[in-house]
Structure prediction request, 462 residues.
Amino acid sequence: MNYQFKWSVLWSGQSGSWLLQGVITTLEISALAWVLAAALGIVSGALRTVPFRPLRAVGTFYVEFFRNVPLLVWMFFWYFGVPPLLPRAAQDWIFNHGAEFWAGMFALGVYHGARMSEVIRAGILAIPRTQFEAAVAMGLTTFQAYRLVIVPIALRLIVPPATNESLNLLKNSSVALTISVAELTFQTRQIETYTAKAVEALTAGTLIYLILCVGIAAVMARVERRFAIPGLIARGG
Amino acid sequence: MLDFGVISANFKFLIVQGLFGLGGFAGGTLRLAIPAIVLGFVLGIFIGLARLTPSRLISVLATLYVEFFRGVPLVMVIFWIWFIIPQILRLPIPEYGVALTAFVVFEAAYFGEIVRAGIQSVPRGQVEAATAVGLTRAQTMRFVVLPQAIRNMVPALVTQMIVLFKDTSLASIIGYVDLTKAAQIVNNREIKPFELYLFIAVVYFIFTYSMSRFARRFERRLTPA
Prediction:
């Protein structure tokens, strides 16, 4: 193996600004998709616990269908498959406004919403039924019991799995390079194409992902400790 | 207008080649997924065991391996293998080899964590009893701990198999002709993206959903009443 290392390609020329743009795009698409995923996850997670069968079926269908199909297929579906079915004017508008970013964001959000739904449902189911009964016995309405008792406990319970899922979302945003969203992996490939220095470019991209993931995990571990309910969550070492 | 005739016209290419990789084709989702699952699990057993060995060096190395691959996107790992392996071996590697290596190396980190959790779920007294009746460390692992641990791991293992099965679609990025790539190829000719991508979504769903149903039934049967 006689590979000539030349690390300076990472800070000479445009590489630095490409990496920075890549990180920003990765964070943007992940943040927007995360909001969508959380919203869909909460709604569908709640739908799956209501005492009305058709609504439960809608929630279950959404979760099972969207999380059981590869994200890449959803990216292609939302980017290539759906726009041609829209009216001409809507198509023109979408393709003039960064269609790949929005299709990628939507695919990522809808896919992870289905996975987030499972996390949220598990969190709600993990709360002993007696908590709800005690809240009602004290005179709270069902809505108040959910708002003041069930949801605050569930949110604290799901911090570790939700963090895990959020990191999966961040890492999966790399799949958006297939529909040419200029996120971090895309920019890494671009540097490699322009400089023919694969190892340097890939090392830079890999380290940035690792720093993002480890950083977020560390922050969330502090959040978890800060909001842990004594006696309810077994504190790991 | 929607035209699902494109599916039946290209059914053989999509399913026989794209999904199964049969009949002298170089491709196929299942031809990649099945060896990747088996080899990834085998490597994962070693990594899971390595994390639990008393040797500090080995367990730290195994932990670093797991944490590294769990902190990096699979797409990145595929690109790494794509560039590195030909550099090291100094010969071109077919997409199949690149994709298989990437999946095994990447998924072994996740399988390793499942194996570790499974082994740690076996009560300590089992090991002590096995040692007391005179089994060596390796025998204890093989005859007492692993059989029970594997049973505890089944639900998480099946979930990870489903994840890996879905992840094989990413092999299409480097040009491997799996189900996703086959749909892309047909689409380039026929321009029916909605029908084609919806069709392969349903095919993937049939496989993954039946795997998860099977896991749930299996789980119920194993749980002592």
Observations:
- The two ends of chain B are 54 Å apart (CA to CA).
- The first helix of chain B runs from residue 5 to 9.
